[in-house]
Amino acid sequence: MKIKGITDIFFDLDHTLWDFDKNSALTFDKIFKLNNININLNEFLAYYEPINLNYWKLYRDEKIDKASLRFGRLNDAFSAVDFTVENHVIHQLSEDYITHLSSFNHLFENTFEILDYLKHNYTLHIITNGFSEVQQGKMKNSNIIHYFKTVTNSESVGVKKPNPKIFNHALKAANTPVNKALMIGDNYEADILGAINIGMDAILFDTKNEAINEDVKQINNLIHLKNYL
User: Fold this and answer.
1) Among the three residues 46, 80, 101, which one is the final residue of a domain in this structure?
2) Are residue 81 and residue 161 in the same domain, yes or no?
3) Which of 127, 137, 162, 209, by CA, is between 20 and 30 Å from 153?
4) Is the whole model's pTM more than 0.90, yes or no?
5) Do 138 and 198 fall within a single domain?
């Protein structure tokens, strides 16, 4: 069913347009080679990815700071695979990861197709909890930055999704009322509930087909946004 009355669409970036897991894996492969870390990459990633998601939840909930996230997720993952790495090397890997992450720019299937489709009838925006120094590079290097009129970053606002302040800040920057706005993202708590709680419509990008809430509009491929817009 088509959604009526929408003028502005707000996208999350990581895990929604920008394929974080794929780009992250390539980055780790690169920085491990640069730092002579001889570890089984697939085994490391199997532990790192859920650990990283948990650290991001702690960061989103204001329970840890950025430095703790960057160090802790690596330290815990190395511990999980019983691989000893000195603290100064973890700090170096953390810096290298941020430096090289935006050099890999795989997007989810049909990203360009859907953005080209939507841009003719809607004004497009980004709301992201990612680090500001990295997110601009991701959008620029993956050639999608020109699609978006505004980019709202949690670091510049001072709060993270699902805090209503970041959504309200984004709406003000876009100069659009909440009843004409739509949020699209992969995180049920941060993107979907965050938007719904301020009265914004939302669509969950559910690539893992988890069917989190049957009352929430969901897609598993970006091209399926055409069913709603």
Assistant:
1) 101
2) no
3) 209
4) yes
5) yes
Question: For the chain, what percent of residues have pLDDT higher than 70?
Answer: 100
181 with 80, same domain: the answer is no
* Residue 61 and residue 45 share a domain: yes
Q: Tell me phi and psi for residue 201, to 5 degrees.
A: -70, 160
Report d(CA 113, CA 82) in Å as an integer.
43
Domain containing residue 87: 20-101
Helix (H, G, I), strand (E, B) or coil at 190: helix
Do 119 and 223 lie in a common domain?
Answer: yes
Q: What is the rounded distance in angstroms from the CA atom of residue 151 to the CA atom of residue 124?
A: 9
Q: What is the mean pLDDT of residues 205-209?
A: 86
pLDDT for 167 = 98
Residue pLDDT, tens place only, 50-76: 999 999 999 999 999 999 999 999 999
Closest CA to 153 of 136, 175, 137: 136
Which alpha helices (DSSP H) does the chain contain, by range?
20-34, 41-60, 66-80, 87-101, 111-118, 132-141, 154-157, 164-174, 194-196
146-158 pLDDT, tens digit each: 999 999 999 889 9
With respect to residue 76, please indicate whether it lies within any of the assigned structural domains: yes
Q: Which two tokens stand for residue 40?
A: 């089984």
